[in-house]
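PROTEIN DESIGN WORKSHEET
SECTION A - STRUCTURE
LENGTH: 138
TOKENS:
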């Protein structure tokens, strides 16, 4: 697969374009396999897309989201990507399936091992969406 660079004149158009790709990927996976798995990162860049996606009319009981980057903090803390994602996707309601990485472990090594086991048991994601910080980190 050859990488393609697409640019957009502003954040609003970028979000609309990403939303379109996400929606098309999810509906395509649902049509071909009956379910979709989408990996999501936290941060300020993708959150508006997630909020918009949460209002889409999709069979949410067949869509699973996976947190793909996380800090070792409680999901209640502002720095938690899972917490950010849960808030952004809250309009999905009780059918939201968000697989977090933090788990219940009290030490980072055990949490990482548990997260690896969870991820290893999942099918290949249909889409992974990374964010980018204002300083350029991904």
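SECTION B - SEQUENCE
RESIDUE ASSIGNMENT:
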């Amino acid at each position: 697969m050859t990488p393609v660079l697409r640019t957009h004149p502003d954040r609003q158009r970028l979000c609309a374009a990403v939303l379109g790709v996400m929606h098309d990927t999810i509906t395509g996976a649902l049509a071909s396999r009956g379910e979709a798995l989408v990996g999501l990162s936290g941060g300020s860049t993708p959150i508006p897309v997630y909020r918009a996606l949460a209002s889409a009319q999709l069979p949410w009981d067949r869509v699973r989201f996976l947190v793909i980057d996380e800090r070792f903090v409680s999901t209640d803390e502002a720095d938690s990507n899972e917490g950010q994602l849960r808030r952004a996707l809250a309009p999905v309601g009780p059918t939201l399936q968000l697989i977090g990485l933090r788990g219940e472990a009290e030490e980072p090594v055990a949490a990482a091992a548990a997260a690896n086991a969870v991820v290893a048991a999942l099918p290949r994601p249909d889409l992974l969406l990374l964010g980018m910080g204002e300083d350029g980190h991904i």
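SECTION C - NOTES
The chain has one domain: 11-129.
The mean pLDDT is 93.
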